[in-house]
């Protein structure tokens, strides 16, 4: 497939170029004027709104409350948790001057909010009756990325971050896993992205966490994308910020805290999980338009086709679908077909004089072969089924692809071969220095210790020490 005027570089030729071109041409995003920033265009932002609303509903249904905390954080706050500030130091944006003069204390532009929220938790919590404290924030985040890529790694991005405080480890761990369940549901049921939930190795943990859990998704180039994370922070931040409560026994104790987040990188995940050489392929549940109607004809025929398309769109909307009538008179039907394929609309309907006379409409599916004719009268009911089937198909297709690109390996030569194109299940000793050596030699990292999977024992794929985890863990190159 050659790149046309509105086409993109084929995935097989250069996946990175394909992605960078597509997110711009499909009108998801535009590069911002400052290095590494992005402008999320309305079409892209609508996708985020669907992801956001699904996740926000789950957060609120389980008793969490939304709040908002400052963008600027005193530098001293970060320094109170040594591992945390060390982990984020290379990515921090720091304000040293404001109002025409140097600040007495520099302000860090929010890279994450454990510290500022920890300071407030210490003020708001005094008794076990105040617990659990379940907070969530929808916000923008700033991290100075050396190699930015739209949606995946940008200097500024959008996310939600949950922050909670609990009486003990058991309650905090239930919260940590609950958040992971939110993310799994949204990724799989809404974005049609199959994910592997699992725990990060010590070398891959969030800075300051006792345990970190993540969702790992495979993109169509075989690389992994971390789609969401949930952290059990133990009492590390509670001790740094003096978050204490009086227990039922009257004893002063430190809270156990958690934090968890999912960001706009999910949009990049949708693009790279489902897209093809023609452009985006959007799961119906997050598609800004689920159905695009293209009237066909000239003059009086065009007017009648447009009127019929509007009427049908109204019935589709009443049935709970998201239709759009393409009334751009200066463009040919062929151009419109290619345009909406590029933008990933799941279903296209074509309506002209012949269809009107027959009381039908022509349906084309984004990944379907050929077209089918359906009655206008029953179109809303039939399209509803088509959309549900397409949602399920995308998830099934992505799952099958991931399984075809994942192998269990027992030799270093096989490991290096597999992680060059996909994921390897392998035994690992758990030592950070061994992880570093594997990364240096293959660019692959341990993605997670899967929560599911049979217990197994063996020796490390690289150093022959005994496995530290009692099962195989996932390795792969990542974004």
Short characterization:
With 479 residues, the protein is α+β, with helices and mostly antiparallel strands. It contains 14 helices and 23 strands.
Explain this structure:
With 479 residues, the protein is α+β, with helices and mostly antiparallel strands. It has 3 domains: 15-274, 2-Layer Sandwich (BirA Bifunctional Protein, domain 2), CATH 3.30.930; 291-386, Anticodon-binding domain (Rossmann fold); 406-476, Translation Initiation Factor IF3. It has 14 helices and 23 strands. It has helices at 15-25, 42-61, 75-79, 82-88, 114-124, 169-190, 236-241, 265-274, 299-318, 333-342, 353-358, 379-404, 412-419, 432-442; strands at residues 29-31, 38-40, 65-66, 72-74, 93-98, 101-109, 133-142, 156-166, 196-199, 211-218, 224-234, 244-246, 252-254, 256-263, 291-295, 323-325, 347-351, 360-365, 372-375, 406-408, 423-426, 445-450, 473-476. The longest helix is centred in the C-terminal third of the chain and has 26 residues, at 379-404. It is globular and about 80 Å long. Residues 1-5 have low confidence and may be disordered.
Strand and helix map with partners:
Blueprint: H1 15-25, E1 29-31, E2 38-40, H2 42-61, E3 65-66, E4 72-74, H3 75-79, H4 82-88, E5 93-98, E6 101-109, H5 114-124, E7 133-142, E8 156-166, H6 169-190, E9 196-199, E10 211-218, E11 224-234, H7 236-241, E12 244-246, E13 252-254, E14 256-263, H8 265-274, E15 291-295, H9 299-318, E16 323-325, H10 333-342, E17 347-351, H11 353-358, E18 360-365, E19 372-375, H12 379-404, E20 406-408, H13 412-419, E21 423-426, H14 432-442, E22 445-450, E23 473-476
Parallel strand pairs: 3-7, 15-16, 15-17, 20-21
Antiparallel strand pairs: 1-2, 4-6, 5-6, 7-8, 8-14, 9-10, 9-22, 10-11, 11-14, 12-13, 17-18, 18-19, 21-23, 22-23
């Amino acid at each position: 497939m050659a790149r046309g005027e509105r086409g993109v570089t084929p995935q097989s030729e250069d996946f990175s170029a394909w992605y960078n071109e597509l997110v711009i041409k499909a009108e998801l995003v535009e590069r911002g004027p400052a290095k590494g920033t992005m402008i999320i265009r309305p079409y892209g932002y609508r996708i985020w709104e669907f992801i956001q609303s699904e996740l926000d509903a789950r957060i609120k249904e389980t008793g969490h409350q939304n709040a908002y905390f400052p963008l600027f954080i005193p530098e001293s706050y970060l320094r109170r948790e040594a591992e945390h500030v060390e982990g984020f130091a290379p990515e921090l944006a720091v304000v040293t001057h404001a109002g025409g003069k140097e600040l007495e204390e520099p302000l860090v532009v929010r890279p994450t909010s454990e510290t500022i929220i920890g300071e407030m938790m210490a003020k708001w919590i005094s008794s076990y009756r105040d617990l659990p404290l379940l907070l969530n924030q929808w916000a923008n985040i700033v991290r100075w990325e050396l190699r930015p890529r739209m949606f995946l790694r940008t200097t500024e991005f959008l996310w939600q971050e949950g922050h909670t405080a609990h009486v003990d480890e058991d309650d905090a761990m239930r919260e940590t896993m609950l958040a992971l369940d939110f993310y799994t549901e949204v990724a799989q049921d809404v974005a049609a992205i199959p994910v592997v939930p699992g725990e990060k190795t010590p070398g891959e943990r969030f800075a300051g966490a006792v345990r970190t859990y993540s969702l790992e998704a495979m993109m169509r180039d075989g690389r992994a994308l971390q789609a969401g994370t949930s952290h059990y922070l133990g009492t590390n931040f509670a001790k740094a910020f003096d978050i204490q409560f009086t227990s039922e026994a009257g004893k002063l104790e430190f809270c156990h805290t958690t934090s968890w987040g999912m960001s706009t990188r999910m949009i990049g995940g949708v693009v790279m999980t489902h897209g093809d050489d023609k452009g985006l392929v959007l799961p119906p549940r997050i598609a800004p338009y689920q159905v695009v109607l293209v009237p066909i004809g000239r003059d009086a025929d065009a007017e009648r086709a447009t009127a019929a398309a509007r009427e049908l769109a109204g019935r589709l909307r009443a049935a709970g679908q998201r239709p759009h009538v393409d009334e751009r008179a200066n463009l040919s039907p062929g151009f419109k077909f290619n345009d909406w394929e590029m933008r990933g609309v799941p279903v296209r309907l074509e309506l002209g004089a012949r269809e009107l006379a027959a009381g039908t409409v022509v349906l084309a599916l984004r990944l379907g072969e050929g077209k089918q004719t359906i009655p206008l009268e029953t179109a809303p009911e039939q399209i509803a089924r088509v959309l549900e089937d397409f949602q399920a198909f995308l998830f099934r297709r992505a799952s099958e692809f991931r399984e075809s690109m994942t192998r269990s390996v027992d030799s270093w030569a096989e490991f290096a071969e597999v992680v060059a194109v996909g994921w390897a299940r392998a035994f690992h000793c758990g030592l950070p220095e061994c992880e570093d050596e594997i990364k240096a030699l293959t660019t692959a990292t341990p993605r997670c210790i899967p929560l599911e999977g049979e217990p197994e024992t063996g020796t490390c794929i690289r150093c022959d020490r005994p496995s530290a985890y009692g099962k195989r863990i996932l390795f792969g190159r990542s974004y």
